[in-house]
Amino acid sequence: METPGTSSGTGKAARFRALHRRPSPDDPLVLAGPWDAASARVCAEAGFPALATPSAGVAASLGYADGRTPADEMFAAVARIARAVDVPVSADVEDGYGLAPKELVERLLEAGAVGCNLEDSTGGVLKDARAHADRLAEVCAAAGGELFVNARVDTFLRGVTDPERAIERAALYVAAGADCVYPIGAPVDVLPLLRSGIQGPINVLGRPTEGPTPSALGARGASRVTFGPGLQRLSTAALREIATDLAPRGTGG
Prior knowledge:
Keywords: Lyase
Pfam families: PEP_mutase
CATH architecture: Alpha-Beta Barrel
Protein name: Isocitrate lyase/phosphoenolpyruvate mutase family protein
Distance between the termini: 49 Å
CATH class: Alpha Beta
Number of domains: 1
Largest sheet: 5 strands, parallel
GO molecular function: lyase activity
């Protein structure tokens, strides 16, 4: 067994890419979303074959609002998570923090990540799809196969409900070299349409304790299922309940 943090990036990247080749449509790859080293160990010990950090969950753990985490702190958090486990870790790095593709790839690899999410909106506004595709192509070229690039498609998140707009963007990103596309917020009932129109793996946002199961999402078109900050928020809610029960009442302590 590998010691946490010691396997080569090449080996983990290959393992991660292979995990996306699923034996059947209703058996999607399911990735837990840890927000720190402790939660990463819990998820790995539970049997998840790989992990995918959520930017919102990591931000909350560091005391920031989603989208406000300084790049240095985000990469440091990803590095702590990757060092803590011996399974592949993909990192949500939002829109790339304005870093040049080569520097972005270098920092991800230095942190021990084998994959990344890259969003196609910033400040709540969709980016020009062709310009974003060009950036993705540069990231993929700089990575040379060492990173699994999950290209997020933010149309549904930004109020563009026509599935064809998501399919058009996804086609550009796949052509640019993205390994997977992530139409975040897509309604479950449009997943079959997205599946028929998109080449390659599709990442779907699931809910940890409600909604369709990962298997049901796979049957509708999901190649992999992630939970965003869902696990972190559930953990925080559980801690809040426990803390409320334990907190002293009145002035007596």
